[in-house]
Amino acid sequence: MLDDHHVAGDANSPVTIAIWVNDHRARLNTDQYDWPRETLQNPNASPLRAAAASNRGTADSTIYLAETFLYEKAEMLETLDVFLEERLGPKWWVGTPLEKYAPKR
Asked: Domain map of the chain by residue range?
């Protein structure tokens, strides 16, 4: 199930992204609680606090997405490389369509 997460806090922007409920409650909302209270709540509707909240929210969301998707997929690719080396040898990609992606040295 998904929740709408106010990236900059709802006091600062109506912009939301869809996030899994558990991640929203346990991660992104918790990250916002670490922000300065004046920035998250922005009681005077300061444009500078709203901009600060946008920056903080974008950073928190980017880190969340990187940890959720990029690092996990990098570990999967590294595991696959070990598997292919064991099965096909240390240069398993030579002679395959993947050879064009090998680093140029």
From this structure: 2-72
Two tokens, residue 54:
């946008």
**Residues forming a β-bridge with 18:** 4
Whether the Cβ atoms of residue 27 and residue 64 lie closer than 8 Å to each other = yes
User: How does pLDDT run across 32-85, given as a tens digit for each residue?
Assistant: 999 999 999 999 999 999 999 999 999 999 999 898 889 989 999 999 999 999
Helix runs in the chain, H state only? 21-23, 29-33, 37-41, 47-65, 71-88
Q: 11-15 — which CB contacts under 8 Å span 24+ positions?
A: 11/40, 11/41, 11/42, 11/43, 11/45, 11/53, 12/39, 12/40, 12/42, 12/49, 12/50, 12/53, 12/54, 13/50, 13/53, 13/54
